Amino acid sequence: MERLEPQQKSYLFEATAFAITLIVLATTISVYSIIADTGIIGLLPAAILLGLLVVWYQRGKFNRESYEVRETSFRMQRGSWFTSQDITIQGKKVTDVELRRGFLQRLLFGTGDIHIQTAGGGDSEILFQDVNQPRKLFETVLGVLRNSGHDLKCDTIQNKSSPEKRGAVLGALGSVGGLLGFLLVVAGNLLTILPASIALLAATGVIAVGFVVGVWTYLDQVKRTYTVFDDAVEVQEGWLTRHKFVIPGEKLSDSKTSQGLLDRILGLHTVTVSSKGSGGEFKLLHLANATAVQDALDAVEASMSELADYEGRSDETEEGEAEDSDSARTGTSWSLQPDVNRAAVPWLVLGLIGFVFTLLSLVLPFLWFGIWMAGAGFGIALFQGVIYMNTEYEITDESVSSTFDFIVSNRTHFSFEKVTGVVEKRSPVDWLMGTKQLVFWSIGSDATLGMRHLDVDDEVLDDVLAKHGVNYEEQLTTFTPSFDLATFLVAFFPVHIPVVLGVATASALTPFGVLSGVAAILVYGVVFAYLTFYYRRAQIDVHSDALRVSRGILYRTTHHLDLDDVKDISSTTYPLVSAGSITFNAAGERVVQTDNGKQSLPYQTGVRFISDVRDVHGRVDDVILERPDTMPKASPEREFTVSDRPNLKNLFVLAGVLLPLTLVFFWLLPYFVWRRRCMWYGLSSNHVVARKGIFFQEETTIRYSRIDHVNQVKGWRNKVCGNTSIQIETTGSSSAEVTIQDVNNHQAFSDEIQRYR
Fold first, then answer.
1. Most buried among 92, 316, 544, 550, by the most CB within 10 A?
2. Confidence band, pLDDT 50/70/90 cuts, at residue 503
3. What digits encode the pLDDT tens for the residues 47-65?
4. pTM, full prediction
5. CA–CA dist 439, 421 (Å, integer)
6. What radius of gyration, in Å, describes the C-alpha atoms of the chain?
7. Are 665 and 276 in contact (CB under 8 A)?
8. Helix, strand, or coil (residue 320)
9. Rounded-to-integer distance, Cα 82 and Cα 97, Å
10. 315 and 170 inside one domain
11. CATH code of the domain containing 753
């Protein structure tokens, strides 16, 4: 074991530089204020105080920062005056390693940073910051990965490429264009208020800045090299600031090849390689030989798939895993084209209706909107036809891919070894035209791969599922929702109460109160009838090797999950009844754009209103872990080696700090105590189990083999009360799946989790 610490001078450099800059700026303003008599005084003492606080805070972090490089794992301890964190990562979980050497960092101190990333945990991975001899330490880290089962010999080069100079020029012009546009607008505004000589000087400065940025961008890109070995991918980039990434071949998840209009003119492509989904993508820019690079990446994925599965499958029986891998190979491949009629015909129908409305508007003017319907319908039909005539899908034993090639080019490629779910969707139009949509989840991508408008038979779907490891050989049981009026009223009481109060108020205060009540009853009746029909068509089929979750009426969705891909199960029991919802989570997340920015959504499926949901939860857990020949009749009572509840001291300390608010809202304190007492955490021989909730009681079970890493976190309340929170990061998640809050026996929890893993 090697214990490391950051170099003090390098670690404190940024904070010190910030403090000095702040003090110099404040001194300049203060001197100018005295000379010009502007009345701006007192900035210097404040700047000195703030600068000292920044340095003091950074010094506190430095004193608590340490790293350990073990034979097959890494550990980082960090914190501040108020918090602390302890992270341990197994080498077999590492998806990529990055060596960062900033220009000033390298020139002044000879230090660098090493970032060790996994498939889960977001920003909580290990960072060896400001360490001496970073190159030597980087090789040591790679040695730990080799000890953990990664090949990483890096002795046979499959392909070595660099960005083309013409592409680097294009990239430089792109970066300069946006900057110059912004700066010229600023300079133009200054021209109206400044003398011409100063405005000319500002314009000259703008051009100089643009020139420097362009040259910097160009040199940065032409200095990059991309090397595909037979067992790893190495990316080196940077000019003054230098980065080096190494991705083990076993962790390659998916790749994308894209080509914009200008790239197409220049004959260049961009290849995006992913090892962990969002935040784990590396772009290989401006490649003239993208096909050769993509072929090399495909060859690495194909060769490495025989050696290891994703994140934890190798922890289970190697013999059984080899059998699964062989059974997944069907020897067939499919080249599929979207059904263009399915894509265009519905919009053509809309356009024809709009055309008829347009003609009728000559005598019925209120149908004037028909011209917009016609234009939209025919326009979208043409667009859809062009898109899907130039789209092709390919399915092999090793991978699934989608290619679009028209003006611009895009290719997305998923390895089946990293696919964690297959979703089958059918809309009313699909039912009418005999088509369907397939959606693939991948642990390594922040987006799904969709195959739309497929006119395929069940043979193709069965073969695709077999390649994913789903054969549906033996059905053990089926769970269906039990939805009735009593369950509906009880489960949705948080919604019913305000509705009933609103209707009652309307009945008492308005002359149409009776009509409001009747309307509310009718709406409730329609909703209840719809939900009854909806949940009668929902079901969970449990097989010896897979789960099939189906739901929907006209828009039907079926999720197909290999049991090995289910990383955790969550169930919620509704108040006063045994029914509830159950959710199955697979590894990976997709990133979607919302009004509040980008949001990560987990890959999951489930069904609501399952009778005896807690028992169903346990029985499915048993099937996943033990793979019995028959479905267990009831889940046996689990034995827990370690268990605890959150310490109430942390709540009371917070209440003491927020004493004014506590005095005002003292009546809420019993509720928070009650809610905290309903939290419970335990470790069985197979799971981490977390329970919470007062009225809606939720239980989450996480398989040990799907735990990515465990973090021990101490906030200021934890330090005051002498306890710790434990964050459990799972494979393919950007945040903690479960946080064991404020437990006294935190070390026992951590030790037991590591032992079971």
1. 92
2. confident
3. 888 889 999 999 999 999 9
4. 0.87
5. 8
6. 30
7. no
8. helix
9. 30
10. yes
11. 2.30.29
